[in-house]
Amino acid sequence: MSAGRAPAAADRVCRLLSRQPLGGAYALLTFGHPETAQAQAGQFAMIQPEADTNLILRRPFSIMDTDPLRGHFTIFLKAVGPGSKAVFDLREGENARVLGPLGHGFKPPSPGEAAHLVGGGYGVAPFALFSRHLKKAGVLFHLFYGGRSSSELPLVAELERRGIAMTLSTDDGSRGEKGWVTAPLLEALDRTSGAARLYACGPAAMMHAVSRIAEDRDLSCEVSLDPWMGCGIGTCLGCVVKIQEPGELKPKNRPACTEGPVFDSRRVVWPH
Amino acid sequence: MAALKIDMTNTPSLALEIGTLKLKNPLLAASGTCGYGVEIAQVVDLSTLGGIVTKGLYMAARDGCETPRIAETPAGLLNAIGLQGVGIRAFVSNVLPQLRTYDTAVIVNVCGETVEEYAEVSRIASDAPGVHALEVNISCPNVKTGGIAFGTDPAMTHEVVAAVRRVSRLPVIPKLSPNVTDITVFARACEEAGADAISCVNTFLGLAIDVETRKPRLAFGTGGLSGPAIRPLAVRMTFQAARAVKIPIIGIGGIGSASDALEFFIAGARAVQVGTMNFSRPNVYTEIEAGLLDYLKRHQMSDISELTGSIRYP
Predict the structure, then answer these.
(1) CB of A201 within 8 A of CB of A121?
(2) pLDDT class for A53, splitting at 50, 70, 90?
(3) I want to staple A134 with a disulfide (CB 3.0 to 4.6 A). Which of A78, A139, B39, B284 is the partner?
């Protein structure tokens, strides 16, 4: 398995092929978009309905799955504000403006390394696609999927259907282990030996906690940052995050859309 | 009534010249919405644009404002980016060689904290092969020194524009701030100082508040409002500026369609810039160009310049 070269992005109007409600504000949406269908795990697409709304900016959505041969991709969506709500409300057959695939995805583990994937809330989305790629490459991996309550783990059935080994946790104990998603991660790290790499996507506090665990144990860790984003291609500079590369005297504001959204956690200046 | 004898097989002309600046069409990408051009080249055919106006450049690199830097408001975008940029020398040596390979005009947006800095950035940009014009940024509301301070005092506007004029043979195009009582005073100051055209207008100073935290939605506090929300304000200012001066006006403000652009031409603009809409519809240029050509044919005009200032105002 190789990260390879990221496919070129394309901006086109495309059709919503299927819409699967997952209860509450959650849904899986599948679009026909041949370029984004080649996305790597951790990449994203900027999406808005084609029909005029009062909104100007597209919103970024992590790619949850792809079908490269048929030219489809799927997002796992939570309607949180007016922009994501507008996409959530799209009906099958309606059109959206989609620009993707964008950004840099997760780097696969080195040979012999296991992968621990830590997803919080709708931040679990890229790990569905990443799991598929890891499985295909024969990499040993485990998913830790946490949320505030069972209603915030709407992707469990879909992930179980794919046979993904995972440990669930909720803050209120309504599903899986009670407590933060980092607790079962720590247990697993204590239990296992051998080289491992951590990957985290979810709330900033969760990613910060995972990055500290990685630092304590001298493990590599990648995090997928989720700042407010305007354009997705590095022109508006609205989504900058503080990143300090080796050899730099101080952190610099770098656009998450083009230099991320996935970053080596050691380069991120927390809290971002 | 006899039919008009007009050869409708000819495509109307969209080309124009502002001094030595030759534009194949009057559609420019506005400063701060297209990076340095090369960023959008991955998804946009730059040859469909008359030109691009770069992100504002100072002498030194700048890291810009803290985040959040953008907030969406009804039909508008409030931003305080703070002119993050690589600096003029890095632009000339690292970006321009690639940018000038595209078939589009390159207009460098010049910034400064002092009159001397404006002049020095302008001199360096003017000496670089592949720069076709200078847009003088006297209107950024999101920096603590310079920027809007030069664009809200007519004497300072004159001083900056004259200083840039002295060091450059390229067309000089000051970008006006709308945050003034009478834009015609500033348009005249630019013309008297030797400007070749005027960009009209930059963002409107705004403030959006998160009512739960009672804090501004932007880290900088205030920001600049752009997008369709400001279009009627910008069309009005284009109309006023065009009547006040003889030099061409480049209209800017919430343009996302041919119809939007036409309003500016009719109000008095000779060219237009697309700004905020670049973020969501970077390929809108071909659609706008087609719409302009269709309009000119329907109205039996052979050149878009016939439209400039053709408003039937009471």
Answers:
(1) no
(2) confident
(3) A139
